[in-house]
Amino acid sequence: MLTEKLETDPSAEKPRPKGIYLLPNLLTTGCLFSGFYAVVAAIDKHFAPAGMAVFVAMIFDTLDGRIARLTRTESAFGKEYDSLADMVAFGLAPAIVSYQWGVVRIAEYGRAWGRFGWLAAFFYAVCAAMRLARFNARSASADKRYFEGLPSPSAAAIVAAFIWFSSEWRELGLTGLIAAFGITAAAGALMVSRFSYPSFKQFDVDRRIKFAYILIVPLFFVLVAVDPPTMLLSMFSIYALSAPVLWAARRLRRVFRGPPPAVS
């Protein structure tokens, strides 16, 4: 009887082919491969391609979740697989790229500086792991409009863009190397911070917007095409600094306003 009902009722819902689950997981595999390629390129001293690979991983990471939601193929396996791929692409890969790029050169200025670079890279990897673990543990109850702490892809983008930007310089000197590892450590610290960052997940693509806003999209691609590492580093740095700057501004506003008047 059930078979006859399905054959006669065209509105009956047909089971979704299992093959469609391959699509989001293939995109996640692309994210994982990009992170792996970034590590291999850094080992081979090809730091500009290594930085590019991290941004390619970000594209795959953005697509896999959206495709899974659009096709209704979200699963517990996909969630865990995505988290492991993120750890490789946005946790280990930026740390290893930073290490391969600068530790040997900064060690020339003394063993202590070499240890500083080594610890900064490891600190970033630890913070990325803790950030992803916290996100997974609180994803069910967290406010979808905001991220608690800097998202790991954004932190990886800052490190990768800086290495990509700096790889064109022949010699940074001790100051530049300290800045590189300082940025790596700071990106790690922001990941495990309590600052709130907008997630942009609630952005409604069907909502009407002003025509002038549409021009922002091509302008964004033009600016990135002119000088990719500089523009990407600038944009993600502004995003990373926005939360602590707003927090400091609110604290200063409270200090200058003083305590509220006592109620008599």
Order of strands, widest sheet: 1-2
CATH superfamily: CDP-alcohol phosphotransferase transmembrane (TM) domain
Taken from the alpha-carbon principal axes, the silhouette is globular
Q: How many domains in all? A: 1
Overall mean confidence score, pLDDT: 84
Helix amount: over 70%
| Gap from first CA to last CA | 79 Å
Query: What proportion of the residues form beta strands (DSSP E)?
Result: under 5%
Features:
264 residues; mainly alpha; Four Helix Bundle (Hemerythrin (Met), subunit A); two-stranded antiparallel ribbon; 2 strands; disordered N terminus
What does this structure look like?
This protein starts with a helix and ends in a 7-residue tail after the last helix. Strands 1-2 form a two-stranded antiparallel ribbon. The chain has a single domain (20-202, 212-242), classed as Up-down Bundle (Four Helix Bundle (Hemerythrin (Met), subunit A)), CATH 1.20.120.1760. It has helices at 2-8, 22-43, 47-70, 76-107, 111-138, 152-166, 173-191, 211-214, 216-226, 228-257; strands at residues 146-148, 196-198. It is mainly alpha-helical and 264 residues long. 34% of the residues are buried. 73% of the residues lie in helices and 2% in strands. The model is unreliable at 1-13 (pLDDT under 50).
